[in-house]
Design a protein that fits this description.
alpha/beta; pyruvate-formate lyase- activating enzyme
Length: 319
Amino acid sequence: MVEVVRRKRKSPILTPSSIPCLKSLPTLNVTQGCALGCTYCYIQGYAHYPGADRVILFDNTAELVEEELSRKRRPPTRVYFSPSSDAFQYLPEVQTVTAATMEVLLNAGVEVSFLTKGFISERFLHLFAKAPELVFAQIGIATLDTGVWKRFEPRTAPPQKRIEYLRALHDIGVATTARLDPLFPDMSDTDENLIPLLELLRDAGVRRAAASYLFLRPNCSDAVIRQVNAVDGLRAALSTWAYERFDDGCGGGRMMCREDRARRFARLAVLGRDFGICITACRCKNPTLARTVCGIAGPSVPKAQSAEAQRLFGFADNG
């Protein structure tokens, strides 16, 4: 049972992310903490993390966004809903605040982008259908295996539901991208796992996907290792991983060596092409391997608009 604690946010809400590819965009979190309970989630190490069974909901989010927009001569081009607290958690209270906030933004002509493994109800499809050109959706899905899903992502939407969301979003004209993250080496990046997944993604209208392999922050590595006890070979592999720095502003974690990741990403790219899907590595966690940003928040904002965002919000260009 997850406890929902309602609070009023007092600080500015449209704030920049430390992630390089998001610095020119205002980002927001509807909650502090997340009810989805992914074992590998990095937010468990945040100083303000309220705990696995507690979510702090900022129920005045929509009002604050509307107020901040009214004070600007020009609104931002796009606002990104940060996945560090999934905007589509299954909790009804969270869904209500997310929908109200997105409606404020879309009514103001502001693009909305998000990454989710949560639940996209009909209310959001109706909302997005009014202005699909303003919405950029990225759905996280790395496997169709229900055993892996239940073990590592126990309160997220089932994999088949996420495929349905991608198809429904595509059908109403929303730009959709899949995020194969996290992939587990020799477990979820095998042909047996990926070929049926890519086939369904293709049929759902997906043409682009970003990929990243599992990494272990110090705060959650023990929990992940406990979960892989039953997986032959994976526990031993994790014990050999060394700590690596990610891109500036993203910290770091224990992960596969660069050479192994490079080989696996190259194979993913080839496999993706067989299904008409361009698969690229997440640059933030693979700065020495990826040449372009992964499009976590949609296409890059044009430089003229980024310059305006920098002037209005004090953000750097995400080029």
